[in-house]
């Protein structure tokens, strides 16, 4: 059956099938040992390898259901009864030796499985002189590993020690990458098998369920790939025997094909585990011919692997700690600058080299408060904002790192020169604010141990291993240098610092806002009281001045009558000012009743109210159609009243005066504009327009008290909107206000 190259879909389906292969329940063991399984509750025999009669001295079919005490020597049965049930699952327990019916003596090692069985495996022990040589090899390995520091030297030393102890032709130290690809970082061999040092192997060579078994059972011997497997027989119908912790477990046919293609007849793997039990890598031992390694030798190899794991993990942690210490200083300087700056983002970019060096980046961006600040080599601002939009859609936004942005974000290939890789932190829990570091594309060549693609049999659909392990080079593009754990951890800590600064600033703003609100309420109450109490005295002054002029005018001199007129005029002006101030103070106290209405109707009402003021002046009204708006119509009438009244007033002398009113929907807002061709104003003083009692023209030229636009601003802001103006001297003015289409924000309506 000739294999054919699979399509991408076929490959994925085949690999998924491979990943589901139940390799922990193969139903057979390897031929160099024997196996018995007893029920943990009653110690009755439930399973046995087909040739285990050599161990118990009778046919296994007749032995099913018999207690261990009738099948094993009394001391061994006692250990099985007393020690195995109390041991942790998978922990091997030596049970002694046993002579078989063929005269050979085997060593018995038992363990407790997770499925309610006590499993005993029997293997031939090693020779005494071999054990002594191996003990010396272990002591030498411990001494040499203790004197070595770098990962490269440690890997080479461990490979040499394991080969000396086990006698295999070649030993590889195989480290797993983050994506579970494997890289050979250390090797020792005698030349019978080719060198794989520095080569990379795809994650599919060791699928996920195999990696789980390597974590659970760190020793794995395949003594002879050509030897037929020995089936396991069961005394009664039931689920297959779980051999996850078995040393004799038979091998997947795919793995046997893999070994044949590699040119190895036997192999042994020893797991290299981190302190938390996760796989760092494997020590892979290969032999050109069959090779049986006794249990004691395997235990020695496991000791060396544990020593290597402790040393290499400690070395990596030391490198990580040193890098973290260096980057922590940069982080501290960044946080200090942010704390001292009025704006957090200004502090971050104040010294660009610190921001870039903290992540080993060539460019960085800070997006906060709608602004985008760029330092170093970065994509264009529009592309950076696209990246931020993509980050905002990710499930986990706190820290995002990738060395290949194009693999996740559509269209990122075009940014490869500046942003093949990104490291990003979210600096707000409410808004899409980020700090993003960028790294450019680094074109590299990965040398694989054979083309990584597997094949699928055309007839059976069965996934087969790679047939060639000849060196195969692949050019890798659209990838940056990898972000180190130290850089990622420092970025995460910086995020925590930024969030703390933002929260502290928010608390300070909230406290200040509360104080300002109290002061504003007090000022509003004061202005209301003062303006209300002043209305009556000013009316009295106006009234009595009029009576004095009417009843006593004949007795007054011309100068006296002029004085009385000035008093009356000043009192009227002061009264209007007080009325305006009272209206202004009430504007912040009155309730709002937002409804949907046609603003064109309000504009028409205001036009009619202004007819007496216009008094026949030529005015060209240009009122554009307007869509409905959601607001308080009483307050909005005051807005249009003030804006249109100002337009009429400041176009006095124009022939004709042109007053335009238009509205549009833009960016989720209702935007209205009142434009005229009047006297205009100097934009240098635009900041004064909406202040109370602020005037840009002399009172002698244009009447008014200077409070109308302040009222307009207060009304618009109470609706959650904004107002601004544009103008030029002698060329007219335009006033714009924008209200949110969603209506009045919570808290504004009361």
UniProtKB/TrEMBL annotation:
Domain named Histidine kinase: residues: 529-743
Pfam families, per the entry: GAF, HATPase_c, HisKA, PAS_2, PHY
Question: Which EC class does it fall in?
Answer: transferase
Supply the alphabetized keyword list: Chromophore, Kinase, Phosphoprotein, Photoreceptor protein, Receptor, Sensory transduction, Transferase
Q: Give start and end of each Phytochrome chromophore attachment site domain.
A: 150-306
Reactions that this protein is recorded to catalyse: ATP + protein L-histidine = ADP + protein N-phospho-L-histidine
Q: What is its EC number?
A: 2.7.13.3
Gene3D superfamilies per record:
1.10.287.130, 3.30.450.270, 3.30.450.40, Histidine kinase-like ATPase, C-terminal domain (3.30.565.10), PAS domain (3.30.450.20)
Q: Which PROSITE patterns match?
A: HIS_KIN, PHYTOCHROME_2
Q: Which CDD domains match?
A: HisKA
Instruction: Cite the InterPro entries for this sequence.
Output: BphY/WalK/GraS-like (IPR050351), GAF (IPR003018), GAF-like_dom_sf (IPR029016), HATPase_C_sf (IPR036890), HATPase_dom (IPR003594), His_kinase_dom (IPR005467), HisK_dim/P_dom (IPR003661), HisK_dim/P_sf (IPR036097)
Against SUPFAM superfamilies, the record matches this protein to:
ATPase domain of HSP90 chaperone/DNA topoisomerase II/histidine kinase, GAF domain-like, Homodimeric domain of signal transducing histidine kinase, PYP-like sensor domain (PAS domain)
Set out the biological process GO terms recorded for this chain's protein. detection of visible light; osmosensory signaling via phosphorelay pathway; regulation of DNA-templated transcription
Gene Ontology molecular-function annotations: phosphorelay response regulator activity; phosphorelay sensor kinase activity; photoreceptor activity; protein kinase activator activity
Q: Can you tell me which family this protein belongs to?
A: In the N-terminal section; belongs to the phytochrome family.
PANTHER family per UniProt: BACTERIOPHYTOCHROME, TWO-COMPONENT HISTIDINE KINASE
| The protein, known as | histidine kinase
Q: Which organism is it from?
A: Falsiroseomonas algicola
């Amino acid at each position: 059956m000739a294999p054919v190259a699979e399509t991408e879909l076929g490959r994925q389906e085949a690999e998924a099938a491979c990943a589901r292969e139940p390799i922990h329940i193969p139903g057979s063991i390897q031929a160099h040992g024997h196996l018995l399984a007893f029920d943990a509750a009653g110690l009755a025999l439930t399973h046995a390898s087909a040739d285990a009669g050599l161990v118990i001295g009778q046919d296994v079919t007749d032995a099913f259901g018999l207690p261990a005490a009738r099948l094993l020597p009394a001391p061994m049965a006692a250990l099985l009864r007393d020690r195995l049930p109390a041991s942790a699952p998978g922990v091997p327990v030596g049970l002694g030796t046993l002579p078989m019916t063929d005269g050979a003596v085997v060593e018995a090692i038992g363990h407790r499985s997770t499925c309610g069985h006590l499993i005993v495996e029997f293997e031939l022990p090693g020779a005494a002189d071999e054990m002594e040589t191996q003990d010396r090899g272990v002591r030498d390995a411990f001494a040499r590993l203790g004197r070595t520091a770098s990962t490269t030297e440690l890997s080479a030393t461990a490979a040499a020690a394991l080969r000396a102890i086990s006698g295999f032709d070649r030993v590889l130290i195989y480290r797993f990458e983050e994506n579970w690809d494997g890289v050979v970082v250390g090797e020792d061999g005698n030349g019978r098998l080719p060198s794989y040092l520095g080569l990379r192997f795809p994650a599919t060579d060791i699928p996920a369920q195999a990696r789980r078994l390597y974590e659970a059972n760190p020793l794995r011997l395949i003594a002879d790939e050509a030897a037929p497997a020995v089936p396991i027989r069961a005394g009664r119908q039931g689920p297959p025997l779980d051999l996850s912790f078995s040393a004799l477990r038979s091998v997947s046919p795919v793995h046997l094909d893999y070994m044949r293609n590699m040119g190895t007849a036997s192999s042994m793997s020893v797991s290299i585990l981190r302190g938390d039990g996760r796989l760092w890598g494997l020590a892979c031992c290969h032999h050109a011919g069959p090779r049986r390694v006794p249990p004691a030798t395997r235990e020695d190899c496991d000791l060396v692997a544990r020593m290597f794991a402790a040393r290499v993990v400690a070395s990596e942690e030391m490198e990580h700690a040193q890098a973290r210490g260096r980057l922590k200083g940069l982080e501290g300087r960044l946080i200090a600058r942010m704390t001292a700056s009025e704006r957090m983002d200004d502090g971050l970019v104040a010294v660009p080299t610190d921001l870039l060096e903290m992540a080993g980046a060539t460019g960085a961006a800070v997006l906060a408060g709608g602004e985008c600040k760029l330092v170093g080599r970065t994509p264009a601002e529009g592309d950076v904002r696209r990246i931020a939009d993509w980050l905002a859609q990710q499930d986990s936004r706190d820290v995002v790192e990738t060395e290949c942005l194009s693999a996740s974000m559509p269209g990122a290939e075009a940014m490869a020169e500046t942003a093949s890789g990104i490291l990003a932190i979210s600096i707000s829990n409410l808004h899409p604010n980020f700090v993003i570091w960028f790294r450019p594309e680094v074109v590299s060549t990965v040398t694989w141990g054979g083309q990584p693609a597997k094949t699928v049999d055309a007839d059976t659909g069965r996934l087969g291993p790679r047939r060639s392990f000849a060196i195969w080079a692949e050019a890798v593009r659209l990838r940056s240098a990898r972000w180190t754990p130290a850089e990622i951890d420092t970025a995460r800590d910086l995020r925590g610092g930024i969030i703390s600064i933002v929260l502290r600033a928010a608390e300070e703003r909230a406290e200040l806002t509360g104080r300002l609100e109290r002061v504003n309420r007090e000022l509003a109450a004061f202005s209301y009281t003062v303006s209300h109490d002043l209305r009556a005295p000013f009316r009295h002054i106006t009234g009595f001045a009029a009576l004095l002029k009417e009843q006593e005018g004949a007795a007054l001199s011309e100068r006296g009558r002029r004085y009385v007129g000035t008093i009356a005029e000043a009192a009227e002006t002061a009264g209007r000012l007080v009325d305006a101030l009272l209206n202004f103070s009430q504007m912040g106290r009155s309730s709002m009743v937002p409804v949907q209405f046609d603003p064109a109707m309000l504009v028409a009402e205001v036009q009619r109210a202004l007819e007496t003021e216009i008094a026949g002046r030529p005015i060209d009204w240009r009122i554009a159609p307007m869509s409905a708006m959601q607001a308080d119509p009483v307050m909005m009438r005051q807005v249009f009243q003030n804006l249109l009244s100002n337009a009429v007033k400041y176009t006095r002398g124009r022939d004709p005066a042109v007053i335009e009113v238009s509205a549009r929907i833009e960016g989720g807002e209702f935007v209205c504009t009142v434009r005229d061709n009047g006297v205009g104003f100097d934009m240098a003083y635009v900041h004064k327009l909406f202040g109370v009692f602020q005037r840009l023209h002399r009172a002698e030229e244009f009447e008014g008290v200077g409070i109308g636009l302040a009222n307009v601003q207060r009304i618009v802001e109470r609706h959650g909107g904004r107002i601004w103006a544009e103008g030029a001297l002698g060329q007219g003015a335009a006033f714009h206000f924008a209200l949110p289409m969603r209506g009045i924000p919570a808290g504004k309506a009361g």
